[in-house]
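User: My collaborator sent over this chain with a note saying "see what the structure looks like." That's all I know about it. Can you take a look?
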Amino acid sequence: MKSNEKKPLFARMVHVVSMAAGAILLSLGPIIWEYRPPLDQLPLLLAKKLLTPLMSYVYRDDLVKAEEISGSYFHGADGRDAPAISWQRLAQRVPALKLMGGSGLEPLNREVHFVFEKPDVPFLKAFSDQRRLKELVGGAGEDEYRQMLALFRWLGTRWDHGTDTVPGNDMCCSPLEIVAAGEKGARFWCEVSARVTVDAAT
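Assistant: Without extra context I'll predict from the sequence alone. Here is the result:
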């Protein structure tokens, strides 16, 4: 029997599996080095990193459908009209929409202020610079609503819902630390997401 004849099926399968395992370890090495997760969270992190591309391919049609649905009801706003006029114009373009009432139909009170941090405070500037938030929303053009969608799409993939301890303390959260912890597997609740969202959008 010649030595270069085909190997038995089992030996070939072992060879293929070994090559695949080696490729996976090589690709996961940088991820493990970057996130440095605790050993008890390592299996979850690896599973998410391995399965996310696979599941995104399996459910790729869902994204197309979601974009079709959202595109059907997003009409934008130029910001120059009073809310009542904007709502009336929207009702004219969408036959199924009927305006019944609400504060949005009243004249806008320009004296109501939203209080937020100045964007140049150190912790917000560090968050924006290190996470390149301006680049993140740059592809959305000048449309502020689409910039918000791009930002929310990114933030929505940083962590899953849960009740893990917030880095720092619950009253004053560091968005940089929260995002970093979420990428290592930590889970946070809605209020934390809201705070980080406001910080990112400021």
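A starting point for your reply to your collaborator: The first helix runs from residue 9 to 35.
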